[in-house]
Input
Amino acid sequence: MKILVLNGPNLNMLGKREPEIYGYETLEDINDKVDVCAHELGVKCDFLQSNHEGVLVDNICEANDKYDGIVMNPAALTHYSYAILDAIKAVSIPVIEVHISNIHAREEFRRHSVTAAAAAGIVAGFGSEGYVIALRALKNMIGTIDESVELNVV
Ligand code: DQA
Output
């Protein structure tokens, strides 16, 4: 099982960026933590962060043939990117949306996710642990889909 872990704009600044909201861990620290969990689960994870919407769109679309699922924090693009929404809709693999902070308890503009409408699930407000929670949930979800295909029930 292969999972792509995608992070959007400004998440390369984790550790330094508003630590009172996002914590002191860097993205590398978080990716290392996710990788440890991936090994435990027998899953292979690849990691990519970009500040560019088009790069993220390309990677979501290309992931369709290469990965079994995506864990993605679209960052600020969550709140306005119809291009990311359409890319998630365009692929047949499940995408779990992750937010480090509880976006529903923050400024008004952060309370709405345009991308969540296409996500298979959402994790928000658990800090960096949210990525690990999403990976575990995604693995179970894909396992369930595979079993259903084998049993011919979907
Ligand atoms: C975020 C929340 C977004 O509103 C913000 O723009 C981010 C990070 C989060 O992980 O909590 O960049 O996605």
